[in-house]
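1st attempt posting a full record on here, be nice pls
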Amino acid sequence: MARAGFRTVGDLIGRHRQKQAIGEAMKVVAEANKYLSEQAPWKLKDEADKPRMGTILHVVLQVVSDANTLLTPFLPHSAQQVHELLGGTGVHAPMPVIEQVDDLDGGPAYPVLTGDYTVGARWESVPLEAGRPLAAPKPVFRKLDPSIVDEELARLGG
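the predicted structure (as tokens):
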């Protein structure tokens, strides 16, 4: 499902269907969560179960890496952090830049979101090698206080 997501999400982004693209990427995340819950590697405590535990964790980390790439166009800062937590180095998610451009028809200048996208993540599943050292876990997102959510919803008229 994660590998197929590159085609599905990429097609939706190409057709400017960002909300649907995020939804499809989040389906991959949900499947990874479901797989992890069903496989329950934390229950595999015997020495004979260690290879199975390793396989489960490797599959989950691969899907996390793939989902990270699928969400990179929408969450570049967070995607860079996840890339580093998964032991990646270098630029994974080039940071966007807002530039003012002149209207070619003589209208007023306007901002355009752009950046150097010749570096960073490839739009494909990149296999994680077994035994790759991972960074110490740390939260990528912080839980918002409900009052902040209420303020933002009110500001957006919803």
